[in-house]
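Lab notebook, design round three. We kept the backbone fixed and only want residue identities now. Task for the bench partner: fill in a sequence for the structure below.
Input structure tokens:
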């Protein structure tokens, strides 16, 4: 996949292309349906398939007070796009200046001059240009002037009512419903970060953990205990994962992610790892003593082994 961070970087001989536009936060099933259709159209008409996306949510510039947290980092989004089969992705910087382009200026500078579009795929509620003043009808009229056509894309509604969206995925993860989120994403939800040294309380309790630095990539699900896979250099290791401040002890940061690898004690300090959340086990709560916590951890481990298909500890 060709990847560009500016329209100025797109070669003059790129295209002609079939283009779709969006935030693509999380690369969920709806996004993948769009890209599948994009690739089909591009293949049928001999065009390059291109995704135009942004380096941040537009609301972070226009209305930061109501901007939702992202499901994926830019690096994760790029990686997910690269597995989609699209020919090129352009992730441009969304600035206030960019937001002030009129619909006509957007079409001319981005679709016509930048990407040499011949087909543009958008949702029926697509808006573009300053203040969202452009709609699909205007895009079609501008397309007829500039030599590209419009294809409208239907939303993906797995339950028949609610359309798959980043908001829905975010809501599910915020409630710990990682299996339901996985169904919408088409993959197990995950975060990525660097393993750092912690207080080593888990080791003292017989459950050594890999603690992730606070600045993880991805959306952290609700506080609680999860059955998970810890991916180290691409190799999945079954793990019990805790998310939260562990109220049994003082001084644990909010949203701390700790992963205990089952049946192994790998040296992970300084490594970048990925935590894939498979199933929610229970909520985070305070225990009367460390001994009570250990007893609950044993019960959690047994259930996690069942979920992940890992034999019982000998």
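Proposed sequence:
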């Amino acid at each position: 996949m060709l990847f560009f961070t500016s329209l100025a970087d797109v070669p003059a001989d790129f295209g002609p292309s079939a283009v779709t536009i969006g935030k693509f936060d999380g690369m969920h099933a709806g996004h993948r349906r769009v890209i599948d259709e994009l690739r089909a159209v591009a293949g049928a008409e001999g065009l390059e398939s291109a995704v135009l996306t942004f380096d941040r949510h537009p609301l972070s510039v226009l209305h930061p007070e109501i901007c939702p947290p992202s499901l994926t980092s830019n690096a994760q989004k790029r990686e997910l796009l690269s597995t989609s089969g699209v020919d090129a992705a352009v992730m441009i910087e969304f600035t206030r200046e960019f937001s002030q382009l009129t619909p006509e200026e957007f079409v001319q500078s981005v679709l016509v001059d930048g990407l040499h579009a011949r087909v543009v795929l958008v949702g029926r509620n697509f808006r573009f240009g300053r203040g969202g003043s452009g709609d699909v009808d205007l895009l079609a009229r501008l397309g007829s002037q500039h030599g590209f056509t419009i294809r409208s894309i239907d939303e993906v509604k797995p339950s028949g009512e609610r359309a798959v969206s980043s908001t829905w995925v975010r809501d599910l993860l915020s409630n710990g419903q990682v299996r339901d989120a996985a169904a919408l994403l088409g993959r197990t939800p995950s975060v990525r970060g660097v393993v750092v040294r912690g207080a080593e309380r888990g080791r003292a309790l017989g459950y050594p953990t890999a603690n992730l630095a606070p600045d993880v990539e991805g959306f952290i699900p609700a506080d609680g205990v999860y059955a998970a896979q810890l991916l180290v250099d691409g190799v999945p290791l079954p793990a019990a994962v805790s998310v939260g401040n562990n109220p049994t002890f003082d001084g644990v940061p909010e949203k701390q992610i700790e992963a205990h690898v089952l049946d192994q004690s790998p040296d992970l300090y300084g490594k970048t790892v990925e935590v894939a959340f498979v199933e929610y086990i229970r909520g985070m709560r305070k225990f009367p003593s460390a001994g009570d916590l250990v007893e609950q951890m044993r019960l959690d481990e047994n259930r996690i082994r069942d979920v992940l298909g890992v034999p019982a500890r000998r």
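Keep this in mind before ordering anything: The chain has a mean pLDDT of 91.
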